[in-house]
Amino acid sequence: MAETGKLAPAESxxxxxxxxxxxxxxVPLTKVANAQRLQVxxxxxxxxxxxxxxxxxxxxxxxDVDGNGYVSASDISQIKAAVGPATKANFxxxxxxxxxxxxTDIGLAKASFIP
Length: 115
Hints:
- The strands form four sheets. A three-stranded antiparallel beta sheet has the order 1-6-7, with no helix packed on it.
- A hairpin with a 2-residue loop joins strand 6 and strand 7.
- The chain is α+β, with helices and mostly antiparallel strands.
- The chain is built from two helices and nine strands; from the N terminus they run βββββββαββα.
């Protein structure tokens, strides 16, 4: 279980309570800028005989719904296909975290598009 944590770069913040449920750790983040890499370090971690700290790298890029490191036509297509309520299967397409994928999300991704 993660009891404490730290975040790099220092400008970003953990913006709430870190929660653990089974094999899922949720870390609410604030002041995270676009187009950067973060590292969340979880302390007090214990699983399968290992205990200590675990560093989790995270890449942030608005519109990169497939996680390949850039925004392409494939990302735009995936967002268009996900228009409607956000679900566990399509939540990455909800760029502005409004609980639904809309034209606004498509526009945000197009702003980061690399042809």
